[in-house]
Design a protein that fits this description.
This protein is α+β, with helices and mostly antiparallel strands. It has helices spanning 12-16, 34-47, 109-112, 116-133, 206-222; strands at residues 25-31, 55-60, 64-67, 84-86, 93-96, 100-108, 147-149, 152-162, 165-173. The longest helix is centred in the middle third of the chain and has 18 residues, at 116-133. The relative contact order is 0.20.
Length: 224
C-alpha cells in the first residue's frame, strides 16, 4: 500500500468556489475485460482536475489473475490457461472472475481529506456493514488488508494513488467458481482459505452485492 499522506490541495476547490459533487457517481459496467478497465482507470485519474466528480465503478471481470507491484512469482499459478495481468496496485496476486462483485474507487483523497490508510479502512468497513445486513459476521485482520469470515478471505482490496487520487478498489466474492484461487497463494499467503457470500446463505448475486457495496462506500465517503 502507499504511505498515508494528506495534502494542502484538499482545500483548493472550496477556496476557489468550485462546486464539488459530495456523493461519488456510481457507474454500472457489467462484465468488463480487465486490461481495458485498468487503462480506463489510469486515464481517468490522469485527466481529472480539482472539480472532477469522484466515481465508483461496479463490474465483474472474465477470469483473470492480477498481480500488484509487490507480486512475487513464487505465489503465481504453476500452470493455468487463465491470463495473468500485472498492475500498479498494492499487494500480491489475486483472482477475478464472473460472480465476483468488484467496486473500483476513483476518489480524490486529498480533496476528501482522506489518507490511503483511511480509505482502505473505509472500504473494509463498507464490506463488513453490507455483509452484516445479510446476516454474515465479518472482520478485518491486522496486517492483511481485506475482509474475512471465519478466518477465510471473502473480500480483497488494493489501491494505487497518483496525483492525490486513488484507483483500483475491492473485490467481494459473491457466487463464483473459487477453484482458480487454489492454484495461487491468494494475496501472497500460502494456503489462505477463501470463501464467498453464497456459502454463507446470501442469495443476492454479484451485481446486486456490487451495487449495495458501492452505495455503502459512497455513503461513508459522503459522511466524511
Amino acid at each position: 500500500m502507499q504511505s498515508p499522506a494528506r495534502s494542502a490541495y484538499a482545500v483548493i476547490p472550496g477556496k476557489a468556489g468550485i462546486r464539488i459533487e459530495k456523493t461519488p457517481i456510481v457507474r454500472y459496467l457489467g462484465l468488463a475485460e480487465y486490461a481495458s478497465t485498468y487503462q480506463a482507470m489510469r486515464r481517468f485519474t490522469d485527466a481529472r482536475g480539482t472539480a472532477t466528480p469522484d466515481e465508483l465503478w461496479v463490474l465483474e471481470h472474465p477470469p483473470v489473475y492480477t498481480v500488484g507491484i509487490a507480486g512475487r512469482e513464487k505465489h503465481f499459478p504453476r500452470e493455468s490457461a487463465i491470463p495473468l495481468e500485472r498492475t500498479d496496485r498494492g499487494g500480491q496476486i489475486t483472482y477475478h472472475g464472473p460472480g465476483q462483485a468488484i467496486v473500483y474507487a476513483l476518489i480524490d483523497l486529498a480533496r476528501r481529506g482522506l489518507t490511503v490508510r483511511g480509505m482502505v479502512s473505509l472500504i473494509e468497513e463498507a464490506v463488513i456493514e453490507v455483509l452484516a445486513a445479510h446476516g454474515v459476521a465479518a472482520e478485518r485482520r491486522n496486517g492483511a488488508p481485506g475482509v474475512y469470515v471465519d478466518g477465510a478471505k471473502i473480500a480483497a482490496l488494493g489501491l494505487r494513488v497518483r496525483r492525490g487520487s486513488c484507483y483500483h478498489g475491492v473485490a467481494l466474492n459473491a457466487d463464483m467458481d473459487l477453484a482458480p484461487f487454489s492454484a495461487i497463494d491468494p494475496c501472497g499467503y500460502p494456503d489462505l482459505a477463501v470463501t464467498q457470500t453464497r456459502a454463507h446463505g446470501v442469495l443476492a448475486g454479484a451485481a446486486e452485492m456490487g451495487g449495495e457495496l458501492a452505495r455503502r462506500i459512497a455513503g461513508l465517503i459522503e459522511d466524511k
